[in-house]
Design a protein that fits this description.
mainly alpha, 6 helices, about 75% helix
């Protein structure tokens, strides 16, 4: 077994274990920290797929900015254990049924999927590089890219307008 395959299996097991710990952890802070570990292991998978740009964006955007936001919100809420309502048995049964249904659907989709084999003659080492990603983004997907940028601009203007205070509302 080569080192890349053994590293893939190590990353895969660590990804699944940390994703399970996100769900099973009782403390929300620990859950967010396990989610950060999950994002780092997914970045390792991107590197194995020769997509270094996606790995860097995954670490910077998700593991950096969004997880800091999650931690800030969780710490800001200051959730206490005594204020948490207990879950009824009906809620637990409904959650088990929904989780089982999702598992059956994903397993059925996995069984029907066909994974192509590796062909070294058609391998292109430049597939995940930023130059090819940028050319594809600005050539084939220019309209969705521009529409997404307009949508983000409108959302930022809306957030500024909602956060803007009127002259008579200053209470400090």
């Amino acid at each position: 077994m080569t080192s890349a395959i053994s590293f893939f299996y190590f990353l895969s097991s660590l990804t699944v274990l940390s994703a399970l710990m996100v769900i099973l952890s009782k403390n929300p802070i620990h859950s967010v920290l396990y989610l950060i570990l999950t994002f780092f292991t997914l970045s390792g998978h991107y590197i194995l797929l020769n997509a270094q740009f996606l790995a860097a964006v995954n670490i910077i955007v998700y593991a950096g900015a969004i997880m800091v936001l999650f931690l800030f919100v969780i710490m800001f809420l200051n959730m206490k254990q005594d204020h948490e309502e207990s879950k009824t048995n009906l809620t637990k049964v409904a959650a088990a049924i929904v989780g089982g249904t999702v598992f059956v659907i994903l397993f059925g989709a996995y069984r029907k999927s066909v994974i192509p084999g590796y062909d070294p003659t058609t391998f292109d080492s430049q597939v995940g590089m930023i130059e090819n990603l940028g050319a594809l983004l600005f050539r084939d997907y220019l309209l969705p890219f521009e529409l997404a940028s307009i949508l983000l601009l409108v959302a930022m203007v809306g957030a500024v307008m909602l956060g803007k205070r009127e002259v008579g509302e200053r209470h400090f």
